[in-house]
Specification:
The protein is α+β, with helices and mostly antiparallel strands. It contains 12 helices and 8 strands. The strands form 2 sheets. It has a 4-stranded mixed beta sheet, with helices on one face. Strands 2-3-7-6 form a 4-stranded antiparallel beta sheet, with no helix packed on it. α1 packs parallel to α4, α7 packs antiparallel against α8 and α8 packs antiparallel against α9. The longest helix is centred in the middle third of the chain and has 37 residues. The chain binds flavin-adenine dinucleotide. The site of flavin-adenine dinucleotide (FAD) has 25 residues, from β1, β3, α11 and α12.
Length: about 375
């Protein structure tokens, strides 16, 4: 049984059995990693951030980053979908009403329902805190109209945490849980042509006057911006963990390759000093990525005043590192990597999402600079 104490060990075994066998197919067929996602549900992972009183494991940001990292060492797409679920769960656990938490958190802990994030819109792009989506009030319900531009795991997750403009408080924002099968919710399911993260099923979702019951509002009216601030801390650290795990995957692939690549002279690539120096660079970058991620997550859990700066920094570091790691690993992989005999080109494609996912690399640097001079 999964516990916080055996989390790292059990998750390593879990990824070998339930994630690694599907990784290649997820990419080549641009297919959602259903088997891995179902196994995550069945084996208690969806309840990682659900408080114990609701049947979950009561984990924190460090546990979240540990599992995202471990999954991404095998499949970055699976890790990304899981990361979105955990982040959305953190929003519900932190700000949901007692009634909403009692209704949904036990089901999440049992793996009966999962969540996704619907923040981004094309009108604000990477500045996901500035949605255009509008609300109208009708009886005790809200009618939502607008379009979210990317929802990872759409149609696979049950509820989308949806960020809107309050119709009651000027400039206020709200957060809602919207069921995937709601009337007038339209999935643009043919839209995902990502060069990487090919199985994440991200797609635009139209809210064409979608009616949501008042009880599915997360938190108080107009306070969504505060919620988004906390949600971002799980999201940014989670992305840092995903791209650190992906970097490790590239390191392990390059290491195996240079030891196995043999010439007729009898030597292997790993006999070449410059090759070993490149490997040393790759390894140092993988270690720096994950060390900063775990430190940042821990500082959030211990409510350190420096945690926001550390969280922004860990993802900036992981993003730069993963692109460098994959590029250098491709060089070590030579023609075999270029010809897709090694999975390195997939990892390179997946890695490029890191710099554009909100808050993008450049926006994060702006945020970190602001945080440091505050
Ligand atoms: C694989 C993947 C999965 C995703 N999943 C989700 C999801 O589940 N939920 C969700 O809500 N969103 C999701 N997104 C959306 C994502 O978070 C971003 O909102 C989206 O990638 C922004 O794209 P854009 O073309 O609108 O970027 P733009 O806003 O057009 O930005 C383009 C470039 O300009 C730069 N830029 C823009 N403004 C500034 C500025 N002020 N300062 C410096 N640089 C700036 C950006 O850094 C970026 O590099 C996903 C995206 C990807 C790639």
């Amino acid at each position: 049984m999964l516990t916080l104490q055996n989390l790292i060990h059990v998750t390593q075994e879990f990824t070998e059995k339930y994630v690694a066998p599907f990784t290649e197919r997820t990419d080549t067929e641009a297919r959602f990693p259903t088997e891995s996602y179902e196994a995550l549900k069945a084996q208690g992972y969806m309840g990682l951030l659900v408080p114990k009183e609701y049947g979950g494991l009561g984990g924190g940001n460090l546990h979240h980053s540990q599992v995202c990292y471990a999954l991404a060492r095998s499949c970055a797409t699976t890790a990304l979908c899981y990361m979105m679920h955990n982040t959305a769960t953190a929003a519900l656990s932190s700000f949901g009403s007692d009634g909403l938490k009692s209704e949904l958190l036990p089901k999440i802990a049992k793996g009966e329902i999962t969540l996704a994030l619907a923040y981004s819109e094309s009108g604000s792009g990477t500045h996901f805190g500035l949605p255009d989506i509008q609300e109208k009030e009708q009886d005790n319900k809200r009618i939502l109209s607008g379009r979210k531009s990317f929802v990872t795991a759409a149609q696979h997750a049950d509820y989308y945490v949806t960020y809107t403009n309050s119709c009651k408080i000027k400039d206020g924002k709200n957060t809602w849980l919207v069921h995937k099968d709601s009337s007038n919710l339209v999935h643009e399911s043919t839209q995902w042509q990502g060069i990487g993260m090919r199985g994440n099923a991200s797609m635009p979702v139209q809210y064409n006057d979608v009616k949501v019951d008042g009880k599915y509002q997360i938190g108080n009216e107009g306070e969504g911006e505060n919620h988004a601030g906390i949600v971002a801390m799980y999201f940014v650290v989670g992305l840092g963990a995903v791209y650190s795990g992906l970097g490790f995957h590239a390191y392990a692939t390059a290491l195996k390759h240079i030891k196995e690549r043999r010439y007729t002279t009898g030597g292997t690539l790993s006999d070449v000093e410059l090759v070993r120096i490149h490997l040393a660079d790759i390894y140092a970058k993988t270690q720096s990525s994950i060390a900063l991620v775990f430190d940042a997550a821990q500082s959030f859990d211990s409510q350190s005043a420096e945690s926001a700066a550390k969280i922004f920094a860990c993802r900036i570091n992981a993003t730069h590192n993963v692109m460098d790691i994959c590029s250098l690993a491709m060089r070590l992989g030579g023609g075999k990597a270029y010809n897709k005999e090694l999975p390195l080109e997939r990892l390179l494609r997946d890695a490029f999402a890191s710099q554009v996912m909100a808050p993008s690399l450049d926006v994060l640097k702006v945020w970190l600079g602001q945080e440091l001079v505050k």
